[in-house]
Specification:
The complex is a heterodimer of chains A (114) and B (113). Chain A has 114 residues and is an all-beta fold. Helices cover 0% and strands 48% of the residues of chain A. In chain A, strands 2, 4, 5, 6, 9, 10 and 11 form a seven-stranded mixed beta sheet that branches. Chain A is globular. Chain B is mainly beta and 113 residues long. The radius of gyration of chain B is 14 Å and the shape is globular. The model of chain B has no long low-confidence stretch (mean pLDDT 90). Classes of the chains: A mainly beta (114), B mainly beta (113). At the A-B interface, strand 5 of A face strand 5 and strand 10 of B.
């Protein structure tokens, strides 16, 4: 079974530039998550989708971050404009959506903002 | 106070030792609990779910104490391959009744030969 795919794996941009990350969850997984993990910290949930609807985006900095999952499968996360403090690994995860179910993580995108 | 707190470590123990981590959570309405393992520069992977009755998987034992609002992970007969960061995850019910997933900052474990 293919895992969660993410691209790009690495991205270096200058502050105030825009960047987009892509995620393809495990086939059939209804729930998709985007996390931000800063070095030395645990992942912080940015947004959670159930199919193409948003379940939780309370920690998403909406002035600069946006995410969509238009057809309920792939998802993109965008940052515009980027700040130095956005340097982190952006992890995408998916789960079947059932109670107490396991999240499967992709390899992440390591973003460096200069 | 953080919603989910872990001792960051690092815990540096000899191979074969028993080591235990605790994780405390602030929301008494929390619903489900997990331990994830994260190797250096890798993505987190589920180690085990934590059930009210406690559960064991080989050398790993997880327990939940709802009264004191903490979960624990015990590793017996530790192996070099157990070296990793262990993340506590709590699925909380927020004020709006929607669930909210919170990761702890992780506990670093290093096993020495």
């Amino acid at each position: 079974e293919a895992g969660v795919a993410q691209s790009p794996r690495y991205k270096i941009i200058e502050k105030r530039q825009s960047v987009a990350f892509w995620c393809n969850p495990i086939s059939g997984h209804a729930t998709l998550y985007w996390y931000q993990q800063i070095l030395g910290q645990g992942p912080k949930l940015l947004i959670q989708f159930q199919n193409n609807g948003v379940v939780d985006d309370s920690q998403l900095p909406k002035d600069r971050f946006s995410a969509e999952r238009l057809k309920g499968v792939d998802s993109t996360l965008k940052i515009q404009p980027a700040k130095l403090e956005d340097s982190a690994v952006y992890l995408c995860a998916s789960s079947s959506g059932l109670a107490n179910n396991e999240q499967f993580f992709g390899p992440g995108t390591r973003l460096t903002v200069l | 106070r953080k919603e989910v707190e872990q001792d960051p470590g690092p815990f540096n123990v000899p191979e074969g030792a028993t080591v235990a981590f605790n994780c405390t959570y602030s929301n008494s309405a929390s619903q489900s609990f997990f331990w994830y393992r994260q190797d250096c520069r890798k993505e987190p992977k589920l180690l085990m779910s934590v059930y009210s009755s406690g559960n064991e998987d080989g050398r790993f034992t997880a327990q939940l104490n709802r009264a004191s609002q903490y979960i624990s992970l015990l590793i017996r007969d530790s192996k070099l391959s157990d070296s990793a960061t262990y993340l506590c995850v709590v699925n909380m019910r927020g004020y709006s009744s929607a669930s909210k997933i919170i990761f702890g900052s992780g506990t670093r474990l290093s096993i020495r030969p």
